[in-house]
Structure formats: structure tokens, C-alpha cells
Design a protein that fits this description.
Blueprint (H helix, E strand, L loop, with lengths): L15 H4 L5 H15 L4 H5 E8 L1 H6 L7 E2 H16 L2 E14 L2 E13 L14 E13 L2 E9 L1 H8 L4 H24 L7
Parallel strand pairs: 1-6
Antiparallel strand pairs: 1-2, 3-4, 4-5, 5-6
Helix pairs in contact: 6-7
């Protein structure tokens, strides 16, 4: 994993498993895996994921070189780390929590929520974000396990609502930011193909 400067102590990104004490054991394992992936813990891939691991969601389809739009293997975990860690660095404080989880047949379904505040400048194509703005994004994640390790993960985020939050409810600003994502994703796809760190919003 690339060395990255961690968030300040008042943020809980990378610590979701610590707050999910009432979740089932499978969910806690999955949360722990993704906390370590976020933090860039050495050997996280070997400890928590199968060699044929596959990650698939709307964002991966925009940057993937694979026919099905997935990111695979250790490179998928590095991409997750780069995107989420760099993204969180754009805020002074980010609180992460698992607000719902369900387990069955070596599968976990969870709803994650990130609440970000104290913006550090422009973000996701939205300029002049007020310093007191607080934004929330929710995501649904489905992890499947085999032999005690994660071999597949699907995800999707409530991106439009997130952009509306960032834009303070201004639909035009949110739409403009969404339109700029195509250019950003092309830059990310190029970086992914060249094995370089992914550019941040």
C-alpha cells in the first residue's frame, strides 16, 4: 500500500469496525477488512481477500480495464485505498458508521454512512464550499466470502444526494459537478491503466 498521511484523531474513517460492536461476527470481519484496506495495513489483501477478489460498482465501471467493469485482485484494494483515503483528506472531519447490516449464507449486506465537515477547499467540481457545511453520503455494500475471506464485493453510493449536499441544495451546481465527473473518471482510468495513484476530486 502507498504511505498516506492519516486523518486527524477526531475522524473515524478506517475505524468503522470499532463502532459496530453489536453487528454479527461476519459483518465485523468485513468491516475490519475494509478498515485495514482504507488504512493501508500491510498484508491486508493476503489476510482478508482471496487471490481472485473482484470489486464492482458504478465507479469501478468508469475506471476499469475489464470487460465487466470490475477491479480485481490486489490492485482493487489499492484503488479502494487511494480513492477513499484521498477523498477523505478533503475534509477536516469525517465520521464513518455502519447503520444497517444483514448476514446470510457467507454474505453480508451493509449500509454505510459517512458524515463530512470542515471542507478544505473546492471539492467534486463545487467551488467556494462554506467552511461550516456538513454533508452525508450513504452506500450499500454486499460482500461475499469463501473459505473465510472476501472474494467479491458490490457497492453503490447515493452520489447525487451527496453532490446536492455539497452544493447546499443548489440543483444547478450539483448537476454541473456531476457533468464534470466524466473528465475526472477518464483521468482516473488513465492512472489505473498506468499503475499510478488515482487523482482526487
Amino acid at each position: 500500500m502507498n504511505d498516506e498521511k492519516s486523518l486527524e484523531e477526531n475522524s473515524s474513517v478506517g475505524k468503522a469496525s470499532e463502532k459496530a460492536k453489536d453487528a454479527g461476527s461476519l459483518t465485523r470481519f468485513v468491516l475490519e477488512a475494509w478498515d485495514h484496506a482504507y488504512s493501508g495495513t500491510p498484508n491486508v489483501f493476503e489476510d482478508y481477500f482471496t487471490p481472485d477478489f473482484k470489486m464492482l460498482g458504478p465507479e469501478t465501471k468508469m475506471v476499469s480495464q475489464e470487460p465487466d467493469g470490475s477491479l480485481r485482485g490486489k490492485a482493487a484494494i489499492q484503488s479502494y485505498h487511494d480513492m477513499n483515503h484521498g477523498d477523505a483528506q478533503m475534509w477536516g472531519k469525517v465520521e464513518a458508521e455502519c447503520v444497517f447490516s444483514l448476514e446470510a449464507d457467507n454474505t453480508t449486506v451493509r449500509i454505510m454512512r459517512w458524515t463530512s465537515s470542515e471542507p478544505r477547499g473546492n471539492y467534486a467540481g463545487v467551488e467556494n464550499i462554506p467552511p461550516d457545511r456538513v454533508v452525508t453520503i450513504n452506500g450499500v455494500f454486499i460482500d461475499k466470502l469463501r473459505d473465510g475471506k472476501i472474494y467479491k464485493m458490490w457497492f453503490t453510493y447515493d452520489t447525487l444526494n451527496f453532490l446536492l449536499d455539497i452544493a447546499g441544495g443548489d440543483h444547478k451546481k450539483a448537476a454541473d459537478a456531476l457533468a464534470k465527473m466524466g473528465e475526472m473518471m477518464e483521468m482516473m482510468k488513465k492512472a489505473q491503466a498506468e499503475g499510478k495513484p488515482l487523482p482526487m476530486p
